[in-house]
Structure formats: structure tokens, C-alpha cells
Design brief:
flat, alpha+beta, six-stranded mixed beta sheet, five-stranded antiparallel beta sheet
Length: about 700
């Protein structure tokens, strides 16, 4: 690379163009940044007034540019790798100087104009006359400042000014115009031109920037990261965008625009829209949607957890050290595919399987499943996607109802991705079989009996769980609807209500023959209050008086919620007590058990923890043989799964493999013989694991 020290004036002297790629951030300097620059200018002006020989250029940082090949009448052009914020600011400063000079009929109107617009012969005058060609979102505002009377009909891709009527570029121009006007203003008109002279000299000799021009073999990304430690802080998404597009430099230009801009407009411009800049929460962390999306994208690619604050460093390491995409276009297409999936998760449309899962994930705070969901959505068809999401929802919801931990979710879900990549059966079969064989409390899938027991006996109502309970009851509400019910759409937020109130003692006394019986029954009643059978949904909160009133008062109020099937059924109850709560809980469970499916019925031997560890401990290349029905079946262990010759799919236990062969549930450890790599001895698998 070749470094040159240039003043603000030198940067724009001669016939040249600086092209800011579309992937660069839009103009972002605010008043604090502008005031620092103006202070530097005034400091240089002060030195000129005192002693010209004392003026030494003040270094303002560096810019990195890469020369673009030009042909024929095209104006010499440079692609701006870094420094676009300073370059744009300098142009706005010079435009302000020009316009204040014009007001005072100063010669510096024409002088400043030379550093804003190119003159002479050029291929596309409408575009190439501008010394600086900013990003798409800044273009219209910039042109309006640099050349207010310009005819823009021949300039493509101008963003409608109505989209962003007040830009930071306009604010910066207004700031400089005000400062310059105040600076040159004087009671004696004869001093105005002198002040212009000193100000211009300060810009020419008092402020310097290092212009680094890249040569063949230079790495623009490394230089960018080294120099970009100052100025407006870059987000992880900013760093990733620059990293991707700067590796695509050197593609040249067409029609006076950089070719890399086409990649940006197709793949990244949609990610610069307000939708992706909105803040989203995951647990206690908050960041923009685009940062979450890119984090999920990298986690999906790696098959491992990625903290959002390590997004850029992790992505850079993956691309450079592990498996770089074949081209920048392939890299961007992959990100676009992930963004299309995650947008549906964020939008949460009830008519879309991904949207419904996004709503479920928010309610149950399981964003850790998103990398797995993205992989499934990108790999399978619509049917597989819906079935797979149903499996994940059932797995997560059953574990939640049973009070099982979520601590393993961050590693567990991304770990499944690698299994799916190696699968030979369908995504649905592999996912369901794998989750069904988990045994430990950190990852097992509760069966119907455990699910029923927790549904009926565990207190489910707590403040932090209200979004989850609301989701569960809303789904049951939809399941209860039949063709005989009116079709309605409830647009108001639904709230959770206790049918027997939490403050039940005043109006819901227990009936008993003795004081001891009263105490016992009150304890029994207290255990029923927060069970699912005692909860319902309302489209608006009940009045506190009614809510805590007796059932005879509360029932009519609940009947007003007749649009909900959950509440219509309550009209049949004459009393509401512990027995009614238990019965309603069982009725709700019968729907829940059908809606949220159980795991596959796996032989007890398959779910034995010691057996599972032994199975996974067998080395790759282990040969396996099973004799059944007069035939011999051969298989090999690869990457923790058994592959049977002549059968599709991968099996994560010997019993699963036996079932594939026999279509019956069996203890596979006693079916299969094994021969370890490098050994001639055959052993019954059960003898090997016990020995």
C-alpha cells in the first residue's frame, strides 16, 4: 500500500471520484463529531493569526482507497474502503463554505466549487461530475446540498426523500454553514474576505489525513479493522458486512457504479431496513434483530453456541480458518436464506408454521432453538418443517410443564444440527428418534404419564410463567373449537384468570364438621388454586370485586366471555370446588396430550443411561452383525450412529436398529455382535458393555 499525507483541499483537487460502496454505513456523524472537527479548524485558524510558521498539519486519521479501473472518458475513480464518514463530512463542509461565500460575494464560492464537482469531458456527466458518490440512502440528500439545482432524472436508484426527509447529512451541512457564517461575520465588511482567506488556508494547510492507496495483494479487511478503532462504534453486523464486502473488492464498475453494489442491493440492502434494526430481547440480553439473526446463522453453520458479543470474531475465524464460502455471492445468498427464515420467526404470523413457532419461542423463552429451526427450515420441505417444529414444541412444552431444566438447551439444540447433517433418514425421523432416546433430566422428553402427572399435580401459575400459560390455554381454546362454534378472531390481549380466586377464604369457605377437618380441607384447597384446571382466559380483566367474589357472582361474569370455548363450558358447573378443578384439569390434559405429542416408545434398554453411554463409546468403524429370520444383517458405526447395509437411516441405539430390521421392539444389545476396529474377535454387544 502507498500512504500519502493530504489536506482536505488536496483530497478533492484534480479530476477524480470517490465511490462509497453501498455496503458501507450511511452517514452517521452527529453534532459531537462535528464540533470536534470545527474546534480543530478554529485552532488552526488561531495559529495562522499568531504565526504562520507555527502551523503544523493536525492529523485527522486515515482513509483507505482502492483504485478502480477506468476506460475511455471515465473519470478516475477510487473505491473507499475506510474513511467514508470523513470524506462525506469534508464535502459538506466545503459546500457550506461555498454557500456562505456566495452570500458574501466572495471568490471562495468558485474556489470551493472546484472541490465539489468535476468539470470537462466524462462518460456519464449526470453521475461522474460529483467528486464523492455516497451510499444509496444518502445520495438524494447529498446531491441536494452539493448541487441544489441538479437535474436528477438521469441518476438511478435515488431513495425518495419522503422516506427520510431530515438526514444527518443535512444537519451536518447546516451546522457548518452556521459556524462559518458566524465566523466570517464582522462589523467591517472589508474583513470578511480576509477571514475567508484564513479559513481556507486552515483547511489547506492546517488539517491533514493519510490517504492509503491499496496495491495488489493488500488485505483491505485487515487494514480496515486496524484503523477503525475511532469514530462511530461499529455493531457486529457492521463489522460482518464490511468483512464480507471488502473481500469482494476489485470487481470494478459498470455504468459509473461499483459492481459490488449489485451484491449489496440484492442481499444486504433488505437487512438495512428498519425491521432488522429493531431491538429484540432474548433473556436479559438486548440487541438488534440483525445481530440475533447473524448470530443464529453462524451457530447454525458451526453447530455450536455463539455468544452475540463474539459474533464478528467467530464469523471471521470460521471463514478464514475453517470453511470459507466459495464466493462472496454464495456467502451472501446463505445469509439471505437465513434472514428469510428468521423474518418469519420475528413476524409471528398465525398462518405460517415458522411464525407460530416464533410466537411459541417468545412465550417459552427458547431462542436457543433458533439455529436448529433455521437449519430445518433451510434443509427440509414445508411438510417436514411443520412436523419438525411440532416435535420441538412438544419436547419443550412437556419439559416445561414437568419442571425440567432448560440449562442444556443452548448446547443441546445446536448439537442436534450435526446429527441432522449426517442423517440418511428424514429430518423428522432423525429428530424424533434422537430426542426420544434421551434419558438424563437435562434432555429427556417426558412421556404421557409424566406429562399427565405434572399437568395435574404441579402448580403451574407463577407471574414469570404467564406468557407460557396464556400460550397453552390459547392453543387448547383453538383445539376445542368445532364447526358448530362461531368463527371469531380475538384481537385483544388475553389474560389469565383464576376461576377459584387466589384470595378465596373470604367468599369461598370450605365445608367441614370440625375445626381439624376445616384446616385439612383448607390445605387441600390451597394446593388446587394454581393448577391448570383452575385457570382460564379472559379477553379483559374482571373487576377485582367480581374476581374475588363467590362462584354464584363470578359465573355470570365468566359467561360474558362466551366467545371462548374454555368459558362456555363453565356454565354447566353448579359448584366449583377441588373435584371440579381436578376434573377440568383432566379434560384439558386429554386435549394437551393429543396436541403435544409424546416421544417414541423406546425399549427400556435403549433409555438405560449406562447403555447409552456404552453405545456412544464404541469407536467409529466398529462392525456389527445381527442374525434374524435366517438372514444376517451387517452394519457399521460412524459418528455415533449405526448404519445398516441395505437400510436407509441412522440409528442411535442397537434396539432402534433391531426395530428397523424386525419391526418389533427388542433389546438390541442382545441382538447384535460387534467386532472392534483392528480386532478379529466378535462379541455380543451386551457382553462388551458389561465387560
Amino acid at each position: 500500500m502507498k500512504p500519502f499525507t493530504r489536506s482536505i483541499i488536496d483530497l478533492f483537487d484534480s479530476k477524480r471520484r470517490y465511490l462509497i460502496p453501498l455496503y458501507q454505513r450511511k452517514y452517521a456523524w452527529r453534532q459531537a463529531n462535528l464540533e470536534l472537527l470545527w474546534d480543530d479548524i478554529i485552532r488552526a485558524v488561531g495559529k495562522l493569526h499568531v504565526d504562520r510558521s507555527s502551523l503544523t498539519p493536525h492529523f485527522m486519521g486515515a482513509m483507505v482507497i482502492n483504485q478502480v479501473k477506468t476506460y475511455g472518458m471515465q473519470v478516475q475513480a477510487y473505491e473507499v474502503i475506510d474513511g467514508q464518514q470523513r470524506l462525506t463530512t469534508f464535502q459538506l463542509l466545503l459546500a457550506a463554505l461555498r454557500d456562505v461565500a456566495k452570500k458574501h460575494k466572495s471568490k471562495y464560492e468558485n474556489e470551493a466549487t472546484k472541490f465539489l464537482l468535476n468539470e470537462g469531458v466524462m462518460e456519464r456527466h449526470a453521475v461522474e461530475r460529483y467528486k464523492l458518490w455516497p451510499t444509496l440512502t444518502d445520495r438524494r440528500a447529498f446531491i441536494a446540498i452539493i448541487e441544489p439545482e441538479a437535474d436528477v432524472t438521469d441518476i438511478p436508484d435515488l431513495v425518495d426523500e419522503a422516506v427520510d426527509p431530515v438526514t444527518l447529512a443535512q444537519s451536518a451541512y447546516d451546522f457548518f454553514r452556521s459556524k462559518i457564517a458566524d465566523h466570517v461575520q464582522a462589523d467591517d465588511p472589508e474583513t470578511i474576505e480576509f477571514k475567508f482567506d484564513i479559513l481556507y488556508e486552515a483547511l489547506k494547510d492546517g488539517l491533514a489525513i493519510v490517504s492509503i492507496e491499496l496495491e495488489a495483494g493488500d488485505d483491505p479487511q485487515t487494514i480496515f479493522e486496524t484503523l477503525n478503532s475511532r469514530g462511530i462504534e461499529l455493531t457486529p453486523a457492521d463489522l460482518m458486512r464490511n468483512f464480507i464486502f471488502q473481500r469482494a473488492t476489485g470487481l470494478g464498475q459498470q455504468d459509473a457504479s461499483l459492481n459490488v453494489d449489485k451484491l449489496y442491493k440484492q442481499h444486504w440492502l433488505p437487512l438495512d431496513r428498519p425491521f432488522w434494526q429493531q431491538t429484540a430481547s432474548r433473556g436479559r440480553q438486548k440487541t438488534s434483530r440483525i445481530n440475533w439473526m447473524l448470530t443464529d446463522h453462524l451457530a447454525m453453520q458451526l453447530g455450536q453456541l455463539v455468544p452475540v458479543d463474539q459474533l464478528f470474531s467467530g464469523y471471521r475465524r470460521w471463514v478464514l480458518d475453517q470453511m470459507p464460502p466459495s464466493t462472496s455471492e454464495a456467502e451472501l445468498k446463505s445469509i439471505s436464506a437465513t434472514a428469510a427464515v428468521e423474518q418469519r420467526l420475528f413476524e409471528q404470523s398465525k398462518d405460517d408454521a415458522l411464525g407460530r413457532f416464533g410466537r411459541f419461542a417468545d412465550a417459552f423463552d427458547v431462542s436457543t432453538a433458533m439455529p436448529l429451526v433455521i437449519y430445518i427450515a433451510r434443509s427440509g420441505n414445508a411438510v417436514e418443517l411443520e412436523e419438525s417444529l411440532g416435535i420441538l414444541e412438544s419436547y419443550i412444552l412437556r419439559r416445561d410443564i414437568c419442571g425440567l431444566t432448560t440449562k442444556n438447551y443452548n448446547k443441546g439444540f445446536v448439537g442436534i444440527i450435526d446429527r441432522l447433517r449426517r442423517m440418511q433418514t428424514s429430518i423428522v425421523e432423525t429428530l424424533k428418534e434422537y430426542l426420544s432416546t434421551r434419558k438424563s433430566d437435562i434432555d429427556r422428553w417426558p412421556d404421557d404419564e409424566e406429562f399427565r402427572r405434572a399437568w395435574l399435580t404441579r402448580d403451574q401459575y407463577r407471574n414469570a410463567r404467564q406468557p407460557r400459560l396464556r400460550y397453552i390455554l390459547e392453543v387448547i381454546e383453538q383445539q376445542k373449537r368445532t364447526k358448530l362454534n362461531e368463527e371469531i378472531e380475538i384481537k385483544s390481549d388475553l389474560t389469565i384468570e383464576h376461576i377459584m380466586p387466589q384470595s378465596w377464604r373470604a367468599n369461598w369457605p370450605v365445608e367441614a364438621d370440625s375445626e381439624a377437618d376445616v384446616q385439612e380441607k383448607e390445605l387441600t384447597r390451597e394446593t388446587c388454586i394454581n393448577k391448570l384446571g383452575n385457570l382460564t382466559l379472559l379477553t379483559h380483566p374482571l373487576n377485582v370485586t367480581v374476581s374475588n367474589g363467590p362462584f354464584s357472582v363470578k359465573l355470570p361474569a365468566l359467561k360474558e366471555q362466551s366467545s371462548l370455548a374454555l368459558n362456555r363450558e363453565l356454565s354447566e358447573d353448579k359448584v366449583w370446588n377441588e373435584a371440579a378443578i381436578k376434573q377440568r384439569g383432566q379434560d384439558l390434559f386429554s386435549i394437551a396430550a393429543m396436541r403435544w405429542e409424546p416421544p417414541l416408545p423406546i425399549a427400556a434398554d435403549d433409555t438405560d443411561e449406562a447403555g447409552s453411554r456404552a453405545f456412544s463409546a464404541l469407536p467409529d468403524g466398529t462392525q456389527c452383525v445381527f442374525e434374524y429370520g435366517g438372514k444376517r444383517y451387517f452394519g457399521n458405526l460412524r459418528n455415533g450412529a449405526l448404519e445398516i447395509n441395505g437400510f436407509k437411516g441412522r440409528h442411535f441405539s442397537f434396539s432402534s436398529a433391531s426395530k428397523a430390521v424386525t419391526q418389533t421392539s427388542r433389546n438390541g444389545w442382545r441382538d447384535w455382535t460387534i467386532r472392534l476396529p483392528g480386532s478379529s474377535q466378535q462379541l455380543l454387544a451386551d457382553d462388551w458393555r458389561r465387560g
